[in-house]
Amino acid sequence: MSKDYYNVLGIERNASQDEIKKAFRKLAHEHHPDKKGGNEAKFKEINEAYSVLGDDAKRSQYDQYGSAFANNAGGGPQGFSGFDGFDFSQFTQGQNAGGFEFDLGDIFGDMFGGGMRNRTRRGRDVSIDIELSFKESIFGTERKVLVTKNSTCSVCSGNGGEPGSSKDICATCNGKGKIRETKTSLFGTFQTVTTCSTCRGVGEKYKTACHKCKGAGIVKEQEEVRIAVPAGIEDGEMIRLTGRGEAIQNGSAGDLYVKIHVESHKVFTKEGSDLLMDLNIKLSDALMGVVQTIETLDGSIDVTIPPGVKPNQVLRVKGKGVPHGDNKRGSLLITVHFLMPEKLTKKARELIEELKKEGL
Questions:
Q1: Average pLDDT in the 182-197 region?
Q2: Over the stretch 152-169, which tens digit does the pLDDT of each residue have?
């Protein structure tokens, strides 16, 4: 029975070679038998369809005679020979197939111990937590912390050789930095290229290894890290220090992530660039007005409470809030509350009666 290769790849009969290639990439990645949910039979069928439609001459024959021609052309089920002679290099460019990054190196790298392209080695990221007082979070601060991690060796600067030692060409990879291996699988014979483990991809090896790191280029030790905390930082925010994570030889260091924990304040809370506080005053001060001395994060200031201030009225003191922008600061917002007496003396009652007569 003739197979509909166009249907197998989910494309139109007038599809371009680029569209055929993209469809194959996507389906091959989806149905690869070594992936979760993969389907070996479907994978072979997809490969068979692409081996025909991806070749202009075979596609022309298929369009004329159907898949029956494959019995003679070696492209059908009887002639299927895995991936022998198949050139995967065209698929290692990371091109996008329908919004989907595809790389056969990613698929077969897991199968055969390596990828088909080089990837930059990178050290692990490190996470730490620090606690700040409320005032430190408002104005910013600087902290120095000790972080235990893999760091670049200070003696050999990460190259693994004893200072002054000469280098020889790596005997394992003959100076190439890579090892080429040929492996055979169900789908054919593959060549993989891996980084040389002896010289770690450099191609050279020092005659005398560094006495401190024993040639590893990195050592596990405590490192003092300076952390500049910006003004106005929020509780739970993260500070990222690029390259201050764990080091790795012949690769880039990871990052250091600092999670901020801010202690609460018994008086102040933060809202954007403003500081908020409550102020309790006597009823008589509310009626007559008063100058009240309060403690702010900057020190003591005098605040004028106007006569006839209302309950829960908010008074604004500019320039006493959170620093931001170009030497700017938010405001201190003071919510006024009245202190009501629990008991009234006889004289106080008489005075209140006089106020009532005044219509107050």
A1: 76
A2: 999 998 888 899 888 888
CA atoms within 13 Å, Cβ hemisphere of 159: 16
pLDDT reported for residue 141:
95
Mean pLDDT of 3-15: 89
Q: Tokens for 311, please give them.
A: 């309950």
Tokens of 355: 């106020």
Query: Cα separation of 259 and 332, whole Å?
Result: 27
Say how many C-beta atoms besides its own lie within 10 A of residue 51's C-beta.
22
Q: How far apart are CA 168 and CA 46, in angstroms?
A: 48
Give tens-digit pLDDT for 59-82.
888 887 765 554 444 444 333 334
Q: Report whether 299 contacts 279 (CB < 8 A).
A: no
Q: Which tokens is 253 given? A: 């260091």
Residue 88 one-letter amino acid: F
Two tokens, residue 104: 């056969």
Pairing of strands 178-185, 126-132: unpaired
d(Cα 88, Cα 32) in Å, to the nearest integer? 15
Calpha distance 249→224 (Å, rounded) = 20
Q: Where are the alpha helices (DSSP H) in the chain?
A: 5-9, 17-31, 40-53, 56-65, 70-73, 104-112, 134-139, 283-288, 346-357
DSSP output for 87-99: --GGG-S--BSSS
Q: Do 85 and 216 form a contact (C-beta atoms < 8 A)?
A: no
What are the backbone dihedrals phi and psi of residue 324, each rounded to the nearest 5 degrees, phi first? -160, 160
Q: Which of 74, 75, 108 is closest to 89 using CA atoms? A: 108
The larger pLDDT score, comparing residue 113 to residue 181, is at 181
Of residues 303, 279, 300, 282, the one with CA closest to residue 292: 303
| Residue 359 confidence (pLDDT) above 80 | no
Counting Cα atoms < 13 Å in the Cβ hemisphere of 250 gives: 18
